[in-house]
Amino acid sequence: MEYRPGLGGYGYYNPSLGRWVLYSVLGDALMTNTLMRNQGYYYGATLLSSSNGGWGFSSTMGALLFLALIVYAASRLFTIRRNF
User: What pTM did the predictor assign?
Assistant: First the structure.
């Protein structure tokens, strides 16, 4: 890619055509989009993912708190039944 103001701006010399080919921003964008789509690239919004399989700190603490609540309720229920 070169800039040659006498030949119209940015472009390149194509030896097989034997002429200067002007750079087209629209053509480049369309070709890039087509090639990326055909090769399976994704460049949209960032997908949310977690490096530890989806269990973040708050999820782990919530699960532990829920487990502790179940154990506490079971021990209270066992104590109440034993007294009657």
Answer: 0.37
